[in-house]
Amino acid sequence: MAEIVDERVASHRRQSRIIYALLAGLMVLFLLFELRLPFIVGPQSRGLFETVEKLPEDKLALLILNWAPGTYGENYPQTEALIQHFFLAGKPFAIFGVDPVGPTLGHEIAERHAARLGKQYGVDWVTWGYRTLQLPMILGLKRDIPGTIQRDYQGRSLEQFPIMRGIRSARDLSLIVDVTPSATVEIWIQYFHGAVGTPVGYAPTAVMAPEAYPYLQSKQLVGMLAGIKGAAEYAALLDEHYEEELTWKYPPMRAMNAISIAHVLIVALIILGNYQYFTRHRRRREQS
Amino acid sequence: MLTTDTFTLWRNIVLGFVAGIALLLLLDRITNNSSRRRLMVILTFLGGLFYLLEFVLPPGTTLGFLPAPADPTRDNALSPFISTIGSITLVIAGFSFGLGLLNLATIHGRNILGQRSGWHNSLAFFVAMILMVISGLFRGEYASLAALYRVLFEGLYQPLGASVFSVLAFFITTAAYRAFRIRSGEAALMMGAAFIVMMAQVPMGMMLTNWLPETGWAANLRIEQVSNWLMTILNMAALRAVAFGIGIGGLAMSLRIWLSLERGTYFGKDS
To answer: Which of residues 3-42 of B touch A (CB under 8 A)?
Structure first.
């Protein structure tokens, strides 16, 4: 009996190593070589894109970055796509977060693209930095932005930045986009869209995207970038609408190809696993 | 150079800190457990009552002892205090960071001093924390510390953080091979829906039905259209029901916490 168990454990280990090697090898291959596969942009990404295009330039868009390096693969390209769009469309925006690391990462992305596109800190964008996620802070933000935030990520008073002139409360925000692996978007829908009608967009990881569909259907969300697919769709829309060359630290289309092969592999393994299961099951029945 | 404003600010901080410690010590001396609990219940209730009243009182409402709101079309008498209380809670949150840091330092310090198993991991914790704090705080002044910060944050923290979650992909793949078995009709239905949604997410999956026309009734059979229907009709209905349940449950829980009816680890075991 012990030998049978040992043999089974050794067999599982061998299978695991083969599967890991297959997955890693295929993903590396598809990340290295770009394939141009047919791609259709969904209505959720298009909704967010068109909303950003129509934003008024005398109000501020709020890009809330609540992600950390753990969800780099999905949230980084989403953030990069949104920041490039804000810059290319000339829409002023602020970077903010209720996660300590997100605003820092977003600021680095914004600095890199600002240098390329000739944008200026304090005029085209501002980074408010990190604040703790607490109800009094949210309510204060809704009512009095300069009084609640007060300073940017480097401790400089917000009043000195031209972009913050005339921005008093949530009514002066043109859009809120929450880039996050968690369900923080409900806070912005409840306290900003529900209270003062600020449009809200959502850029979650793919696993969180299904929870947003009720809000999309009720128009409480103007659009959504669902995971890396959403980022790739947004990149395709930017390519279509703007002549300027887009640059990516992690190109979303290439990541989509790698994810494609991973999905195909998972489906193939499920089919193989079930085939083996039913074959074994039928053999046992025949023997008995 | 110490300006008057800086001196006043630090004087107020020190005085506030000393007054706070004195108040806590006084409360500790003059109260017993049941008095402390009563005090916490009263403060919790007053805190919640403030926000409830601020939300429900119509704009323009004045309370005799409070100044009238600056914008009576939008605010009531309690609204001007929202920002101040927000700042107070931010300061309290700052203390919670310090408390967390103190806690970690105590646990890992004990590991090192007691030479417990894995004490070298605790040493690594201190080294990493001190290096990160120093390089982060002073990177603006010293180029060497800026370079160190870049190595630690961009070179180590970001890739390590991404890698930890990336290994999930391998576990999901082996789990899919070993555990996803179609043993019933419901499992088959679930697997079919999962197959459609998974393949519709990726270009290779969309290629399966790319030959179907983009317009007309046949377009509804394209995999991305079927996936969209599953997500926006079936999935949405189920999740909306779940959201209602969560909302009602959250409301009930909030009332219990506000009225200090909740019992458990953080809510006091005293009856």
So the answer is: none
